[in-house]
Amino acid sequence: LATGPRQNNGIFYEIRTYDIKPAKMKEFLEMINKYIHFRTAHSELVGFWYTELGAMNKVFHIWKYDNFAHRTAVRHALANDKDWQGKFISVALPLIEKQHNEVAYLVPWCQLGKPPKEGGVYEWVTFQMKPGGPALWGEAFRAAINAHINTGYTRLIGVFHTEYGLLNTVHVLWWNESPDHRAAGRHSAHEDARVVAAVRDSVRFLESQQNALLIPLQCSPLK
């Protein structure tokens, strides 16, 4: 079943996850920082991160598109960009073990945010919800997110739900000053009756949950 309501425009986000060969991670990250300007000349990069905890040797990057025609035009231009193809793609592909992409929309009640300062860490949380979409679990999920926001220990950056990929998947991107700040905040949240009640209501619709601690690359707009 489709995930239901979305923002009232055509803007969507392509979420790309690459598994990098363990011995090649440093080389891949150096190449991204060096050559990403060839790629960002064609469309907007929201953020680029590598995983520190929760997964190993993975990178996450998010690209913004006005609509599907925009993405098609960008992909065509990239295929004909000699700098991007010759200096990055031809060298980087042998470093990658696996690629995965999803198309997602921001949920209607969320605008893409920014951290209050640079230098923190990001948490990428993936919720696999029961089939039925926001009509079934949307309000309970929103209440759980707001309960965490209201504790003040974390900053919400974005909530995305999938349109292509595994449906009824929601990705939530958070920002914290440090892993220790996040850990202390989580401890307090677990003792907050409002958070506990909201989460308890939301998990009735939850199939699984996975999270990863992300470190932004130097080239990442979100960092």
TrEMBL record:
Pfam families found in the cross-reference section: NIPSNAP
Coiled-coil regions, chain positions: none
GO CC annotation: mitochondrion
Leader sequence segment: none
Entries under Gene3D superfamilies matching the protein: 3.30.70.100
InterPro entries: Dimeric_a/b-barrel (IPR011008), NIPSNAP (IPR012577), NipSnap_domain (IPR051557)
Biological process annotations from GO: mitophagy
Highest taxon of source: Eukaryota
Ranges where the NIPSNAP domain occurs: 13-111, 122-221
Protein family (similarity comment): Belongs to the NipSnap family.
PANTHER family, per the entry: NIPSNAP-RELATED, PROTEIN NIPSNAP HOMOLOG 3B
The name this protein goes by in its record: NPS3A protein
Source species of the chain: Dasyornis broadbenti (rufous bristle-bird)
Gene: Nipsnap3a
